[in-house]
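hi! just following up on the protien thing from before. the input was this:
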Amino acid sequence: MTRILILTRHAKSAWDDISLGDHDRTLNKRGRRSAQAIGAWLRQHGYLPDQVISSDAVRTRETWTEMGLGGCEPEFTRALYLAQPEQLLSSLRQASGRVVLLLGHNPGIAEFAGQIVDEAPAHARFFDYPTGATTVIEFATDDWAEIGWHKGEVLDFIVPRELTD
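and the predicted 3d structure came back as:
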């Protein structure tokens, strides 16, 4: 059996309210539209998570909501707020779903994406992982605890601009 990881960076956040700290920034209009487009793309391709593990930042919460995937109750955790690759891997190794959506932030999520796959997709934006970037990765295991660096096979990669422009 296999496991599928949907790795998504939060959508574009707003910077117009300088009184908000980084953790409390919301999505801007483009971010909401991008998250909706990513959600529609995931549905269209049959990539539906049965577990969601996400940073607890406002913009990641809003990204999940705007994706409109439903189906499961997300786990929002402070441990994934600005998490480094090792923390992301540790959280994923504790997952229980077959298809897990991991929602986080740069720079950690870009570094994690580059380290978790055996071969990066031939896409100019993969390594900088812009807002809303989403990779679908398959692992040849039935236990998340067994995954490690360079073990995932990329099934798909998309950035919102390819869906909205």
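Residues 3-164 form a domain with the Rossmann fold fold (CATH 3.40.50.1240).
The longest strand covers residues 3-9.
cheers
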